[in-house]
Amino acid sequence: MTGTPTDTHHDWVTDTLGFDPRTINRPVDGDADQPGSSPGAVLVANQAGGGGATWNAPFDLGSCDDTADACRNLVDIKAKLQEWDGVGYDAEMKLVNAAIDKQLSALTGSRPLTATEAQTLTAVGLMAVQATRDALKNLAAAISAELDKYTGVEGQAAMDTAAELLHQEFRKGEGSNKIADLKEICEKAGKMTGDIKKYVGYAEKTKSFIKSAAKLEELSKGIEEFKGKLETAEHTLSLASDVATLAGKVGQKPSGTANDINKIKATLDIVDFAISKSKVPIIGQWWTGYIKPCAEMALEKLQKLDDMIDTNTRSNLADEWWQNASKGMRAPSITDSGLNGVLLAKVFPAGQPMLDFMWSFFRGNPPDSAPEAVAKEFLKFRKQFNASLPEADQLQTDAAWYNAWDAFGDEKSPNLLSWVAKNKEFVWAAEYGALPHP
């Protein structure tokens, strides 16, 4: 906001100083009390011996007792105020600069300061400190209000849908392209939601940082670092677009969701942001107008695949038991789940050996070798496990051919352990769907 300071500004300064600064060069009647110090700046005018006086300037500029040094300090104070140029507090700074200019005109030559001059300079210094302090406080509060808008996105239901569909298609044993698409959805949706959580965390950390900022330079540094973190948002929106596209492909219901996301992405501009009072709302707009709605659009599109899940294939019968049983270092005994027969096989295909095997990878203590039953399970579904993977990254087999009457009898996978370590998230989803891993 620019323009001539209003009576409101004069009222603010008068309230702060206890007198009207427009009378700043008028003689002081009687022995008025000298202004005291304020937090962050020593603002004291002391009567010096021999009729002189000392002014302790703000902003750690030191003390002076003659007009020449006082003028130099006033010029330095003006330089301190210049960093606020263009930030949006022009009226407040203009009022202080006018008081400084008045003193620069009055304090000519080089002679000792009088007590009245020192008192006036102290008042001007207090005006400068208060103006910058109030501007910083108001700017920080405005930024914090925008960062409060960085709230999380509910994506677990959509992620569970993708995991359950992946499990469903995987167990069909067809090795279709749909497995590759669902695997890609799980990976990209996971990265996208991971980015969302990071951005919310960055906003919280930035709020704490700017709350303790004592200078505009520090506040600007905090926003610059936050802006740098958010510059990856373009990639996050690309992930959202890909998730929406793949969900339409899997559900055979293409829509304009991905195009809508791309249109929003095209207008997102974080790099060119420069901090100012008028532009602070843009910080919140990055979230509420771009990043969050695009993520929610993609997750909503993914959630609509829920009707493709065969409810007869999976059930939530083990969920309540699992929440408590899955907290240990060792895999829980699946027979304690209360499931048996067909239901047990649906929820825990390949039985206890596979659960023990996978558990060890998530707990950081994988075995030296895979049990025979587990190795056979991986070879049986090798085609599905390798869906969409380039040959160099595939689960390998040492058999060039096998006897159809004794499938996998002598076949082994030389890279089974290293492959599972690299792809454990995918393997877990393929085996157990949306069941949370340890």
What does this structure look like?
- With 438 residues, the chain is an all-alpha fold.
- It has three domains: 7-134, no CATH class; 148-308; 319-432, no CATH class.
- 57% of the residues lie in helices and 3% in strands.
- It contains 16 helices and three strands.
- It has helices at 7-17, 67-82, 90-106, 115-147, 156-171, 177-211, 216-230, 233-250, 257-266, 280-303, 319-325, 341-347, 351-362, 372-380, 382-385, 416-432; strands at residues 45-47, 53-57, 62-64.
- Strands 1-2-3 form a three-stranded antiparallel β-sheet, with helices on one face.
- Helix 3 runs antiparallel to helix 4 (115-147) and helix 9 (257-266) packs antiparallel against helix 10 (280-303).
- The two termini are 55 Å apart.
- Residues 1-6, 21-51 and 401-406 have low confidence and may be disordered.
List keywords for this structure.
438 residues; 3 domains; 3-stranded antiparallel β-sheet; 16 helices; 3% strand; elongated
Task: Summarize this entry quickly.
By secondary structure, this protein is mainly α. The chain contains 16 helices and three strands. Helices cover 57% and strands 3% of the residues.
Count of helical regions: 16
Order of helices and strands: HEEEHHHHHHHHHHHHHHH
What's the main sheet like?
3 strands, antiparallel
Cα Rg: 34 Å
Principal-axes geometry comes out as: elongated
Into which percent range does the helicity of residues fall? 55-70%
Task: Please count the beta strands (DSSP E, at least 2 residues each).
Answer: 3
Number of domain modules: 3
Give the overall pLDDT as a whole number.
84
- Through-space gap between termini: 55 Å
